[in-house]
Specification:
By secondary structure, the chain is an alpha+beta fold. The chain has a domain at 47-158. It is built from six helices and five strands, in the order αααββαββαβα.
Length: 179
Amino acid sequence: MGNSLQEQLLKAGLVSEQRLKESRTDKRKTVKRSGKRGPGPDEAARRAAEQGRAEKAARDRELNRQRQEEAARRARENELRQLIHTHRVVREGGDLPYNFTDGRTLKRLYVNKDQHARLVDGRLAVVRQDTFYELVPAEIAERVRARDPGLVLVWNQPDQGPEAEDPYAEFKVPDDLMW
């Protein structure tokens, strides 16, 4: 009984040699097509792996978004620093103190007479740059305020005129009124 069924059938003359070779090649082809890997991973494990990949991709996207936002914020801050630094007014030789508030603290800058007059009438503004205070022209203060309003500390903008605000502007004061 050591012989296989195919060999026994061949010896008995029931199957030809050609038919035996064909059956062996067919068997080899079907085994090759189906693969000898055995049973594949079960459906639950495959779903769990797919869900894990999807969650990791979502975390990675969120982390990338946060990194991009942080890089954009840093770029805006550096752009503001560069804008203030390039357009600042040099305060050398200032002997006149100009007091202003930064939040709840009182600060003092020493400026010259011309800079003080320009600060008072709104042609200059005081802006915060990191831990320093700089004087910048009004046009630059407007650009800084558009990007970050918290950096402009003092900007005395000229009023539109007392006529626009005064509710009694249309009433004339008599010339002979005596106090």
